[in-house]
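Lecture 7, part B: from sequences to assemblies.

Below are the input chains for today's worked example.
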Amino acid sequence: MKIGELSRRTGASIRSLRYYEAQGLIAPLRESNGYREYSPMAEDQVRTIRFYLQLGLTTEQIAGFLNCVLSRPETFCTEVLPVYESKLADIEAQIAQLKRIRDNLVDRISSFRGESEQGEGVSTRDERSERYEF
Amino acid sequence: MKIGELSRRTGASIRSLRYYEAQGLIAPLRESNGYREYSPMAEDQVRTIRFYLQLGLTTEQIAGFLNCVLSRPETFCTEVLPVYESKLADIEAQIAQLKRIRDNLVDRISSFRGESEQGEGVSTRDERSERYEF
DNA sequence: CTTGACCCTGACATTAATGGCAGGGTGTAT
DNA sequence: ATACACCCTGCCATTAATGTCAGGGTCAAG
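Predicted structure of the full complex, as structure tokens:
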């Protein structure tokens, strides 16, 4: 199939499909006129790429294990686990940082509410940690 | 004081101090030689700017209420609350999204652990599409 | 008068995936 | 042959604050 059809089938823009190729994630054949010709398997391949992108992995990381996971179960690919673990650490750190900012914002917002009557920051902290715990 | 000293006192790089000025957050006088001359109050002003930046607000948002909060308690500045609330909504959404990704990663990581004892993955396809769910 | 520590402006780079345009070729149906 | 849908490459833009040059003034001390 040609790039337009693959785009329609996968939801990836034509621009993105060309980008994945430039990043070495997919290698369509070329017809004599220069058009890309994708095999039917490309559809699954693109969906797999997009899934890993949604997990926040980079094209470079995906390139490191894509061939493996396309041909066998993910759990057989030893390259995948460290990538997951490193990404997970990133995510946890980001969440922690965002939580700090959020708590600060919540404090400051609640001090606006308190300002119209009297007492300042009551013991919002306990309520907050309950509500936001996860 | 000149820009180098203000930088040392506040921890903001010289580049950043110039940037804050370009964004309309601070307006030092100019000496006849073109050098910026900052009043002593600028030190507090820069610290205030940096604090709001740490909360994730943009220079544009900060510009919208900086004059007010510099001259009276924050809770008297009605421009601030909606900015906080909007930022808080962003943060909550980001946290929720990161949590989804994290949960997915945790699942996938734990499936590696289980795989060492379990039988093979016969149908790679089905497993993968199941786990693709967010 | 030179050195060295300051200061100035302006411009480009950074990150990563994607959008979008310009300028052009291909293929098919009318 | 002409319209139209499709494809190609290459390039610039995006976000927002900051880093980092280049090329050049200012000024005090020696």
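Note for the exam: Residues 2-4, 14, 18, 33-36 of chain B lie near DNA strand C (CB under 10 Å from a C1'). Keep this in mind when comparing with the next example.
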